[in-house]
Amino acid sequence: MPPAPPVGARERWERFYEEQGAAAAHEHLSDLDPEAAAAVHANDRRRVVRALELAEAGASLAPSEDRIWSGATRHPTVVVGLDLAKDVLERRIEERTRAMFDAGVEDEVRRALEGPISLTARQALGLEEIATLPRDEAIAALIVRTRRYAAYQRKWMRRIPGIAMVAANRPPGEIADDIVALARTRQ
To answer: In the chain, which end has fewer C-beta atoms inside a 10 angstrom radius, N or C?
Structure first.
């Protein structure tokens, strides 16, 4: 477990990032912790700030080894990805987005923004669009952003070594049965 950052460190590093810019903050991180800098993109503000506060506390954002997908991963382990045809996934994204609006997501966003809200929560997918755009524009923008995010997730998932893809265009019980059967064959 990394040490707790000093009081006020996060705010100080966020100001540093804001005032100096992404490139300068990332360069400073490179000086303090080259491994963490190599693992974090300069435009990833949240992770650069976290890496800077960890470096200041004598720790690192970069693990000494890849703890998730390394040979040290607990065995037997089966990593399963649910696979849908792109057109089915896109249709489901559109249906889910419209259902969220029908269920009152605009009021939920308005209430959330009236109270204290963390920077992380403020960056939730669609929050800005729902809060600032007319309903039809917000729906269209959220559909586009969610489709882009889903495409990113699919690309990321394909890079996982040994992932077992399972067709997800069936009832949940059938999918679960296939996953259990797959796990039993890989022990």
So the answer is: N
Could you say which residues of the chain have pLDDT below 50?
none
What are 161's two structure tokens?
Answer: 């070594």
Q: What is the pLDDT of residue 64?
A: 61
CATH number at residue 52: 1.10.20.140
Q: Residues 167, 97: one domain?
A: yes
Question: Quick check: pTM over 0.85?
Answer: no
> What tens digit of pLDDT does each residue of 108-148 get?
999 999 989 888 888 898 999 999 999 999 999 999 999 99
